[in-house]
Amino acid sequence: MIYLIFAYFCASMIGITLMALTRKNPVHSVLWLLLLFLHIAVLYLFLNAEFLAVVQVIVYAGAILVMFLFTVFLLGAKELPKGKRYTDLPEGKALIGLSLTGVFIGAFSSITTAWKGKYTIEYIEKIGNTKALGVMLFNEYPLAVFLLGIILLIPMIAVAVIAWRAK
Amino acid sequence: MIELIIILIKTSIVFAVVLAHVAYTTYAERKIIGRAQARMGPMEVGPYGLLQPIADFIKIFFKEDIVPMNAEKVLFQIAPLIVLVFTMINLTVIPFDRNFILADLNIGLLFILASASVAVYGIILAGWSSNSRYSFLGGLRSASQVLSYEIALGLSLAGVVLSAGSLNLREIVIAQHNTVFGVYAIPQIIGFIVFVISAFAETNRAPFDLPEAETELVAGYLTEYSAFRYALFFLAEYVAMYIMAFLCALCFLGGWTIPKFIIDILPFLEKVPGILWFAIKVYAFIFLYIWVRATLPRYRFDQLLNIGWKVLIPAGIVNLLIVAFIKRLGL
Amino acid sequence: MIPLEWYLALAGLIFGMGALSILINRNLIIVLISLEVMLAGVNLALVALSHYMNDIRGQVLALFSIAVAAGSVAVGLSLLIANFNLRKSIDIEDLRELREEQGND
After folding, report:
1. Residue A134 — φ and ψ, nearest 5°?
2. Within 10 A of B103 (CB to CB), how many other CB atoms are there?
3. Most buried in the list A23, A41, C63, C68, measured by CB within 10 Å?
4. C-alpha radius of gyration, chain C, whole number
């Protein structure tokens, strides 16, 4: 049963990614991407990462893809490039890309897990995924959280500056 | 197998009850607004017009379903379904009583925020796929409004999560019951006000019903919709109102419990079933929705965004800081 | 229990498709979308590894990567709009300002 579900997810996610990357209309692309992210969120649930699954939906669906949609609407569908959809010499680049893909899959598939941590499924279920994540985040990576705040603040200023210049 | 049947029965009870409430909320709304304007409201169908919602539903479901010629057919047809499905799905994580909850998720509160952010796509797509200026402007307005106010809503709920120490709605109510006041609306009064205002904006209701401001945009993203697809949007709007009322009752007003100091004074109130308290709180919030609609004029769009970003979000952050200090000092 | 390798292969395939699309697409919006697809693949690998190694640090990393992605997309899209206002085009082949002058391509 679990294999069937995983097979469905593999097939549909690959299909959805292909659809998202080959649509002519960027709006359709963004919508396929939304479907892909929802599928990934469900896969996260299978991997016992419930908090991350919800964050994935809130951040990607709620913020990032809406920004994409607004941008596409702002540019207007008429202004998109006509004629050729791919760059010059797509074959050469495709070859590079395909070999890269092969390397990645090969490298990813040959990973062996070295040691097991203490966060077993039972342990996480006992204290709760969100709590475990929060304790880890604020106890081991407090500096990274501060940096993340700054990393999010800088784009905010940058976007305002760029929009100001664009006037 | 038996468990599955029980879950199915529970689900259908919840959905049937909520849909019946939605139908009669439209009736209550027309009656209350009528009274506010010194009219009678619907009186023709049945005694006191009580059968009016049923007559309306029969009428709207037998109308012709029109799809505009230049519309994006598929998206136009699924947009109302996206809105309705991702609104109704929230009902599964709402605890109606101590032991009556369809899915007791550990992240119930975040689940509601997540499905709200997906439901926005239905509105954007409805506006875009209609291929009409009014619809498009209405859809974009609605999207930017819902997204802006979701931040304020999330911040006000963050205070609740911080003091309860959980994202599970049932545990939030229990933690709330164990505090001195019994409701979070009193210590977190700023958060409560931010939540109520954002809830009005989040559900596109008056005084923030700009996406469907009929004086400037005909009916916003609904302009090209007719018959049952229009009814689906309508249904989704009212279910969303109820979700917000549930959230308010659960996170700020103590859900199915009443504060302990009231029980100390009037001990017999403990015998009242919890679902009744929950219903009273929800009805009060729905009445507030209707009352505000009958009373307040509509805001301008720039005013709306200014309120959201310059008032509600800073207020939400202040509330979060206050809650953090209270929690740290152990008050 | 699904083997870890399957998750990693799926993540790698999604990442690879995104990378390929970045290399050959001309539409800047699609290029940015491909970037998101690549990030999604990486996050999937991180979470899968976190689950199979019983270590929640992978999820923390994925959380950081999601947050950084939100910031990067905001900057990317605003640059795209600024570029569109300047050149009236979102074709990636029009971005040749910094290229060395050459006789033929």
Report:
1. -65, -45
2. 14
3. C63
4. 18
User: What SS3 state is found at B298?
Assistant: coil
Q: Taking the CB of residue A161, how many other CB atoms lie within 10 A of it?
A: 11
- Taking CB atoms and an 8 Å limit, are B124 and A66 in contact across chains? yes
Three-state DSSP at C81 gives helix
Those chains having 3 or more beta-carbon pairs within 8 angstroms of chain A are: B, C
- The alpha-carbon gap from C46 to the nearest alpha carbon of chain A, in Å, equals 10
Sketch the domain layout of chain B as residue ranges: 1-62, 66-329
Neighbours of chain C (3+ CB pairs under 8 A): A
- Smallest Cα distance from B124 to chain A, Å: 9
CA distances from A47 to B46, B164, B302, C1 (A): 55, 27, 44, 11
Q: What is the largest CA-CA distance in chain B?
A: 66
Q: What is the mean pLDDT of residues A107-113?
A: 70
Place of tokens 């990973």: A111
Closest C-alpha to B57, from B191, B216, B235: B235
Report CA torsion sign: A42, A47, A48, A53: negative
* Domain chopping of chain C, boundaries: 26-91
Alpha-carbon span B163 to B179, nearest angstrom: 10
| pLDDT confidence tier of residue A81, bands split at 50, 70 and 90 | low
- What whole-number distance in Å separates Cα of residue B178 and Cα of residue B184? 11
Nearest C-alpha of chain C: how many angstroms from A105?
Answer: 5
Identify the pLDDT of residue B18. Answer: 87
ipTM for the whole complex: 0.85
Amino acid identity, position B272: V
CA B322 to chain centre: 26
Sign of dihedral through CA atoms B3, B8, B9, B15?
positive
Q: Which residue's structure tokens are 């605890």?
A: B95
Q: What's the pLDDT tens digit per position in B29-86? A: 888 888 888 888 787 777 887 888 888 888 888 887 777 777 778 888 888 888 899 9
Which pLDDT tens digit goes with each residue over B264-298?
A: 887 777 777 878 888 888 899 999 888 888 888 88
DSSP state of B299: P
Q: Do chains A and B touch (3 or more CB pairs under 8 A)?
A: yes
> Which residue matches tokens 């995924």?
A129
Query: CB distance B107–A62 less than 8 Å?
Result: no
CATH code of the domain occupying A1-78: 1.20.120.1200
Question: At B113, which amino acid appears?
Answer: L
Cβ atoms of B141 and B49 closer than 8 Å: no
Q: Please report where in the chains the tokens 């109520």 appear, as a residue.
A: B196
Q: How is residue B135 written in tokens?
A: 């619809």
pLDDT band at C103 (very low <50, low <70, confident <90, very high): low
The dihedral through the CA atoms of B94, B96, B102, B103 has a sign that is: positive
- Give the chain A residue whose CA is nearest to the CA of B148: A63
Q: Taking the model in full, what pTM does it have?
A: 0.86
**With an 8 Å Cβ cutoff, are C78 and A117 in contact?**
no
For residue B260, name the pLDDT band (cuts at 50, 70, 90): confident
Contact criterion met (CB < 8 Å) for C26 and A113: no
N-term to C-term CA, chain C = 53
pLDDT tens, residue by residue, A83-98:
666 766 667 777 777 7
